Amino acid sequence: MLVQGSGGVSVFALQFARMMGCRVIATSSSDAKLERLKELGAEHLINYRENSDWGTTAFEMTGGKGVDLVVEVGGPGNLPNSVNALAVDGCISLIGVLTGFAGEVPTAALMTKNGQLSGITVGSHSDQLAMSSAVEAHDLKPVIDCSMPLEALGEAFRHQESQKHFGKICVEL
Q1: Among 3.10.180.10, 3.40.50.720, 3.40.50.300, 1.10.1370.40, what is the CATH number of 2-122+130-142?
Q2: What pLDDT, in 10s, does the model give residues 39-66?
């Protein structure tokens, strides 16, 4: 599995993957954040600012097999690298669009790998209950960067935009 970045979605995906015994490759633009991802169980680390061809690097880290799942938070700007990292019959779960809402999809490369690109949105109520049960059963502790009151919602979004956070930014009601 490959997770991108150190935001709440990617960190939680890493935690769940490790909980299930998966091997994880993590990317970030920060070596300090990569070290924190390693502490959470990421086996391989790639600084994408230093390595613009991180998809090929991830593919090579798997011994040329590729990753079965990419948790894609970057969007169209990342898709070529995500496809490069992908194993035959692998899946890219698109849950974010940090690089924009439109762009090229390397369809021929995706087809060559018999890959699947799936858009992900908020799950169902039963999905939430199943996730909560798994969190409790495995004593998984979500990584919380900070918590802010609802009145500071603008500040919470600015903090997220700064990309200085690691894990979830919570808003208190």
Answers
A1: 3.40.50.720
A2: 999 999 999 999 999 999 999 999 999 9
